[in-house]
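Why do we bother with a discrete structure alphabet at all? Because it lets us treat a fold like text: something you can write down, compare, and reason about line by line. To make this less abstract, here is a complete entry for Amino acid/amide ABC transporter substrate-binding protein (HAAT family). Read it the way you would read a sentence in a foreign language you are learning: slowly, and without expecting to understand everything at once.
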Amino acid sequence: MKKTLIAAAILGLGLSAAHAQEVVKIGAAAPLTGTIAHLGKDLENGARLALEEANARGVTIGGKPVKLEFMGEDDQADPRTGTTVAQRLVDAGVKAVVGHLNSGTSIPASRIYHQAGIAQITPASTNPKLTQQKYPGVFRTIANDVQQGSVLGKFAVENLGAKKIAIIDDRTAYGQGLADETEKAAKSAGAQIVAREFTTDKATDFNSILTKIRSANPDVIFFGGMDAQAGPMLRQFKQLGITAKFLSGDGSCSPEMIKLAGDAIGANAYCSMAGLPIEKMPGGADFRARYKKRFNADVQIYSPYAYDAATAIITAMEKAGSAEPSKYLPELKKVNFDGVIGNISFDDKGDLKQGSITVYQFKDGAWVPL
């Protein structure tokens, strides 16, 4: 009787092991606390939704059913915390990472992922230096600052009629990098840069630098930074009687920016997005509805790009028949599919091949694509 029970138990364990589903961890890193937590959560939600929907349809890697497990980390938009978080994800055994949001965290974190041999796809970091490092596992699903800055500088001169431009940046890798590229393009288009000032990504008082800029009487003031600073900055424009047009990049092009600026925002406010408006994205309308249903929140900026980043990772693993980076990375370099934002395929640096830029103007309470 004992032998029969033991044999049955062993058989049961064997069957259980045979049917056990392999777990593949995929990480995400973004600021989940602090002034831009709404953007970080948006990024995280996009990656999470991709994994949940893939699990619902069923994922098979190498002929075996696999469960994708999401692991999110808060990098606090801080470079030092970003590397700590990156190491934590590596130590936890993630096979790939969607993130980070800020270029200033993505760039130092990329070294950790590179040393571990795992893929990092950022849906938000636009500084060109990230992919210029030539790490074979680094990719992005968003246009970079060279593309975005060239459009912004040209737009300021040719569309807004700017002859004199003042530039402010937040001294982050993102803000300063975008400001540098915008300055180059504006100068090439014939504008004069009458002031170049800087602040920080924690500041809320800009009166000193704005007072200095006001005396130069610029036609356009460009800000390289995030919505948490851009909103209060616009309020101080109004307080100081500054009538120059306000122009910024994707970090400020959010619904939250409109809330933070309040009645100080008007038709003289413009921003750009490194991508199409969500209503013009091939899968945008459907994605927005699914996102709203799952999270009871509206898309901010980066969730569609994060969704496509996670989908690219899953696609590469399925095609390679393996979740091991050494096996799926060659397939990741070759991915070519229609995502939410459009075609997803990468050049030899890891940049998105078909990155597009859209410029918006504030009208009737919302950002309206021009």
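What the structure line is telling us, in plain words: DSSP finds 13 helices and 15 strands in the chain. Residues 2-144+281-344 form a domain with the Rossmann fold fold (CATH 3.40.50.2300).
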